[in-house]
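S2.1 Query sequence (Protein phosphatase 2C domain-containing protein)
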Amino acid sequence: MEKAVIYREKEEFKEVHLVLKNASSKQFYEFSFEMDDFPNIKIKSIANLQETGLTFDNNKISGIPYASSVHELDIEFYHIRDQNNTEIKTVHLLVNADPKDLWKNIPSDAKDVYYKRDEASYQGKFSDKKITVVSKRGRAHAHEGKFRDDDFAVNELPGGWSIVSVADGAGSAVMAREGSRLVVVSVNSFFNSSEILNEIGKNIEIVYNTSKLSEEIRSEARENIIRSLYEGVLHVYHVLDKTATENSFSIKDLHTTLIFALVKKFDFGYVILTFGVGDCPINLISTDFSEVKLLNTMDVGEFGGGTRFITMSEVFNDSMSSRFGMTCINDFSYLVLMTDGIYDPKFITENKLEDTDSWKTFFGDLNGHNDDRAKVDFINDTDIDQQLLKWTDFWSRGNHDDRTLAIIY
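Output structure tokens follow.
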């Protein structure tokens, strides 16, 4: 009678339809065998599991599978009252391919006259703080061997000033990669002038002077600062227009967005002068993370989800002054500039750009709370640019644009 019971319980386990949940290549996997219905059955081992990269222990399969395929696994089990006689039950484990592996990574043409590296990074000093910037070609471009259209530039300027500029070339513009390069280089070059910066500095002292100056004088000083910034942006447009003419392009072929932050620490605090055209944000985060400010007006929503480019003459209209910002703050934890390759997957909507919880989640992501366990360490930062480059390789379904991210910390 006992042998009959043992045989029946073993056969019931052998015949039960056991389905292992699917795994994904290169992602942590865990599956526990629920044996409540078979209290007298024990799993001894699982054959063929080693070829998946997974291990079996204490009724649990776990690990990171590295090969996408359908794997046939032989479960060796026994009855607790007949431990010397084991049986085999075969199950199947499907390991799905890593979505990243389905995308090709074709190098761009290094012989092209307007060649641009597929990725770039920078780390260094910025005012009395530090900065790291990375720019990575998106998967959509890499899959077709196209160029990175994003770009950035960082410069220390005379008189304690620093500038960082970021641009996102339009995917529909055939020379967007050159347009984005030109705008960041030319705007930084324009402000690399002691004369211009001294003039801006004098007016800033008037605006934030603690002495009793009339509002009329302060207002005039603010207008002078905006005028200097406007001249820098107009210079960028003229550079693009001249380049297009000299090379028989249409200026539309150079379509690109542009944002920049011109920063100096004064006795009364940090002054941050900003400009933006397009859908790339500039955000300032307070020292205790209690407040986040969007320092530029983004060209989304108002234009039905479209954007504006610095190459468009209509940008230089009566509302141009609203694109400039002037902020004075005692201190801050982070100043962040990014293109939509980061903004779209990580923030999704514009209203989240001033939501402190969204930014805490974002920096938690940077701190390693992500599927790739990629961490950017702002303390042990000797190779922070490489850490950030690795982080920007994150997977986000449907978001495969170029990614550029600048963080002042």
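The chain has two domains: 2-101, 103-408. The radius of gyration is 29 Å.
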